[in-house]
Give the backbone structure.
Amino acid sequence: MQGKDPQAGLIVTPRICGICGGSHLYCASSALDTAWKTTLPPNALLLRAIGQATETIQSIPRWFYAIFATDMANKKFANKPLYDEVVKRFAAYVGTSFQQGVSASGRPVEVYALFGGQWPHSSYMVPGGVMCAPTLKDITRAHAIMNQFRKDWLESLWLGCSIERYMQIKTWDDLMAWVEENDSQRNSDLGLFIRASLEFGLHKFGQGVGKFIAYGTYLHKDHYQKPTVEGRNAALISRSGFYDGKKYHVFDHLSIKEHVGHAWYADVPAAHPWDEPMPTPLQSHTLADSNFNEKYSWSKAPRYMDMAAEAGPLARVLMNANPDNLLPHQVFDPLFGDVIEKLGANVFTRTLARVHEAARLYTQIDEWLRQVDLNSEFYIKPEERDGKGFGATEAARGALAHWIEIENGVIKNYQVMAPTTWNVGPNDDRGNPARLKPPSKAPKSKIHMIPSK
Amino acid sequence: MQFLRKDKGGFLGSNYVSKGGLPVINIPGCPAHPDWITQILVAISTGRIGDVLLDDYHRPKTFFTDFVQTGCTNVISFAQKVDGGFGKRGGCLFYEVGCRGPMTRASCNRILWNRHSSKTRANHPCLGCTEPGFPHHDLAKGSIFKTMHYLGFLPKETPEGTSKLGYYLRAGFEKVVSGSERLVGVDQPQFSSSK
Ligand code: SF4
């Protein structure tokens, strides 16, 4: 995007991904807000948060049924007692829950479309606010659609109980007691997922690097009217942070560097995204011809204070368990502090973290819809200027950020760092791996990895 | 596959036809509406390929003849030259924020997105993503969410099917008449958009 209009990112970056376009837009508009020093009306912050949250909540049933749970129906688990029930519900296309879950995932993005025009690939979040100026019927319809999502899937099929009951769970033991509390919860899709995961042993593999990063998201309507990079952490509803396995650290984007030693770009020293030169792509190789001691990936390797870290829902819910989350607008949910201590990071807890978010997101969307003030403004026209900006969020898959530098009224540098680069990026310049390590030698057949994506 | 922007050619060559005797059918859009894809597949599978007429860019005419403007809830404002803008109810997005609805062929405003809305219904200027050349003006400085003007006030691009001069004359007339009506206090209830 070098040399293009400063707002080019609003059109180009949502199109990077078919699932997290709204998250890219959240970053692109925030990066411009900080560079242009805009003023954001509370309504704009609410409608952006609603866009981000509806996109993330749609991904939960869609990802769970269409991508993850179909693997639990793999023949490999055929000797397990719960296998038949898992196949009956979760088998691709024919499972009794598959169609219902995937169809339900279409509801929340209808709400996104009411405010953004369409999902995916809207550009409705702009520096200074949002394009839309919803009317009463947009808000009431949004409530109705979300309510349908709750009735058709979230409470009926997924939880087997009310959202309120589910949200009382604070510890691993609470969760286990919830599963066994009654047949409705035990036999809900979440109940089955938990029981089958423990039976199949999904809690025994996929440990990762044991360090976690989240940029946090949902800038509070009253705490970010003057967007700055420095003021961002304090304004977040879902917290940012770096957890090193023992301690929480305050997140500072300046501690991030990208390494290209093992990526197909000309070598440059590891640098913060604002300081990175335009990459020079080199010749790539097929997997079979790759030498893992040299360059073997199109992904760069991001590091935080020189450490690899895991991004994603597990990182997010861990930040929410930070006992420092004392301000009224900050989420505090201790469950995953306890889960990590008892079970560690693995395929099961990672997936549990993702689906755990559904109930809270539902209540947040409902609350934010109620807070939209139809008599007040949605957009304040900003003044364009040169400068540097940083915008970040939590995409469904984890920490996502954009960095921009504007010079002479056009883009000089634009960097996007996606969560998957944290998780499956190559080794860094000193040979340290990310969450997924490279194979020790080139594999003969296709790699099958437990997907985080 | 069979075009490079507006020019026929592309990877498969301009004369390509498949074994079934069909050229490449282009379903444009970023993203393409799921209905556009599935309904053409249904047409083929139900033996109606003969009814799928293609335009110069091989787009199915059934979806890509009318403009995005067809069905837009702002057309009265378009006709009467009432400006809309971000964060504001009512008004047309053509004059200030670069809406490409009058130059873009697609059925967004007739079949809607996600069953409920469309860009222009949510006050989002059409970006023209079903037309060759998207993203338009190569994202050059000043081309994004701004209407590019001649002499500071005449839109550089005018609705398809009008001559530039004709458009400017008619538009100028409308703007002056409806503007003066508002000035002298003629009630124009169509523009007092409700909450
Ligand atoms: S120019 Fe755009 S906003 Fe105006 S009527 Fe046409 S499609 Fe609607």
